[in-house]
# Entry
Amino acid sequence: MVIEMYTPVIDDQRVENVSMAPRLSTLKNSRIGLLSNGKHNADVLIRMTADLFTEEHGGEVVLELNKGNASRPCPDDLVDTVVKADVDFMITAVGD
Amino acid sequence: MATSKESRQTTIHVDDVSSAIEYCYEAGWTDGLPVVPPTVELVDAMLEAVQMDPLTVIGEHVTTRRSCTAHAAAVNAVMAGCLPAHFPIVIAAMRAMSKTGFNYHGSTASTGGSGHLIVVSGPITDEIGMNATGNLFGSGNRANAAIGRTIRLIHLNVFHMQPNVTDKSTQGNPGKYSLCVAERSDKNPWPLLNEELGHPDESILVVFAAGGFHNVENHFAATPEQALLTIADSMSCLDSLTHGQSVVVLSPETAEIVAADISWTKSRVRNFLFENAYRENDALQRIGRPTDTDDDRSKYKFSNDGLKDGLTERYHRGLSADDILLFVGGGDAGAHSSFLPSWSRGRNSIMQSEVIKPIKKD
# Structure
């Protein structure tokens, strides 16, 4: 006997605006932003990563942000700051 | 009530029951155990019981921006093994977990591995045959098992919090299969949770993002202090010693010892547990945990906000006695109580409560 059953997922829930940011043509002399997720050592990891970029490609860190709490969603105002930041790229990191 | 703009659940056709079960496996819709095929008839009966618009939003997962409708919840409830009489508890649990303070995102995604505990209190526990006695935390009772499992299936299927994809728990938690219990109303010397929370004539639930289950045993304890110091010691073990909240479930045997002296009110018990669930500075330093004497890792310092009397070197679990949810549960025999720490190492998930709306009877 054929059974008709529902699916347990909601198929048409889609996250909006998830396209990738445009790729950079060069990393040279970039303006870099940092966003730590707030976990233990995330700030250390992110700074070391930024140093690799500046040592190899020049540029500078012009913005340093910290989400402050890894367990909670990023506050809207911080997301807004990242979106509007005058940087060539952002580095974000998880630490622990 | 808010309704979703999303469409209703879509349907599929399969040849027979065993094919339906295998289809659910292949689609990734199970927790590893077989599910009940959510036929249209069973799901519609679930919704009919609560007289709810199927598109009513009963839960929201902020970070994934996914919402759970009553219809989606009903499908997952059928799959988990729920009866329609169980469904009001599922709805109340989803609403409670969607409150901001619960932090649905962190508790479903974290390496820490939370089990989402549901504690049900009030007349509905007897009406639907929930277990509040022996084997409280499993297994053997359909309502307890299926209600807790429904919440997990919703996390998997509606919110897409899937193991090792979006749920990054390091070792998981047995409670991720199901973690739902009833408060024991007999053998209970104190006000029930529904009475404490101001709903003496209604049923309520409390949700708590729980860490691992600690069995606390001391069959030698003959006084309230001895019994409660054993629990406080478990609460203050170094892996659990944080500012997070706690759930303590006293066995009937332990509750009887404690409440034999009527001066041991529920409030006094909570105060005693808080005051004695502490470790001193040097114990934390021995295992490399930052303390107030360290300089830089301030997020992990334990301030002494909950303390008085200038006991500056004591680090307590929680911020105050109010951070302890205390109730009675389990079988008549055995001095086996339990302590469940919060998943959160701090204040990142706060337990929430919700009134359970009963099914209207004709």
Notes: The helical segments of chain A are 42-57, 76-84.
